[in-house]
Amino acid sequence: MIRLMFFGDIVGEPGRSTIIENLASIKEEFKIDFFVANGENAAGGKGITPKIAIDLLRCGIAVITTGDHVWDQKDLAQWISTEPRVLRPINYPAGTPGAGSIVLETAKGKVGVLNAQCRTFMKQLLENPFDRLRQEIEILRTETNVLLVDVHGETTSEKAALAWHLDGKVSAVIGTHTHVQTADERILPNGTAFLTDVGMCGADISILGREPAVVLQKFLTSMPTQLHIARGDVRICAAILDIDELTGRALSIQRFQRLYKVS
Ligand SMILES: [Fe+2]
Ligand SMILES: [Fe+2]
Predict the structure, then answer these.
(1) Ligand 1 centre from 24 Cα, in Å?
(2) What percentage of residues in the chain have a pLDDT greater than 70?
(3) How, if at all, do strands 234-243 and 186-187 pair?
């Protein structure tokens, strides 16, 4: 059995500092073998910088996934091809910098991670994630059956459809992007664990990690506003997955939420 932990979208300094400070104790407490985190909002809510990605990788995150905010920090497109552990959605056109999947060696065998972006109500219209994921999974399954997929999307239905499309072909399909954890974790009939959205790692008193007052202002005025990162206590949202490392079947999926006091 291999135990994976997946953290939802890390929002700004509050989210990333809390993960960096607490990862060793979480690893010890839950006996985690492999950590994955979505880092698309790690730099002030907008994308991720190479430095922040390196800090997260150094503290023990094995793979960082992203989503629609992947290119918000201008340095990333140049750098991403040099660091295969930082993924961009796989369904960008051929020739886009970076990659949407990786297989890494661990003490318990190889683990593959894939990252795709949904298309419904998303600002970029990428290639069909259903087809693109299936093609890539065929290739990765020649190396390992332990495969985790981050499906980054707005609608619950598209993420659920992707999970059913991949049931039996991957160990887990975990949704990101909405920053709100859903309570529908389950194992599908052919052994794929699924959670519609894993939630976020960011300030608890916030709207999706941003200051409530400025988000509210945006809705009240329809004017452009600077969506500042909220401060204070941090809620970490994640999922913990036990996987049979030979077959790749999920044995269990458990939601994780913990509030960390910030003094
Ligand atoms: Fe996000
Ligand atoms: Fe997103």
Answers:
(1) 24
(2) 100
(3) unpaired
Give how far Cα 28 sits from Cα of 24, 37, 137, 161, Å.
Answer: 6, 18, 31, 35
Distance CA 10, CA 28 (A): 21
Pick the CATH number of 2-260 from 3.40.47.10, 3.60.21.10, 3.30.420.40, 3.40.640.10: 3.60.21.10
pLDDT of 263 higher than 90: no
- What's residue 51's pLDDT? 98
Ligand at shortest distance from the CA of 202: 1
Give this prediction's pTM: 0.98
Catalytic residue among 69, 152, 177, 179: 69
Question: For the chain, which residues make up each domain, given as ranges?
Answer: 2-260
Q: How far is the CA of 206 from the centre of ligand 1 (A)?
A: 14
CA 176–ligand 2 middle distance (angstroms):
7
User: Active-site residue 179, yes or no?
Assistant: no
Predicted pLDDT of residue 114 = 99
Task: For residue 224, give the DSSP letter.
Answer: -
- C-alpha closest to that of 66 among 43, 94, 95: 43
Ion ligand 1, residues whose Cβ is below 5 A away: 9, 40-41
Summarize pLDDT for 62-99 with one digit per residue, the tens: 999 999 999 999 999 999 999 999 999 999 999 999 99
CA of 219 to the centre of ligand 1 (A): 19
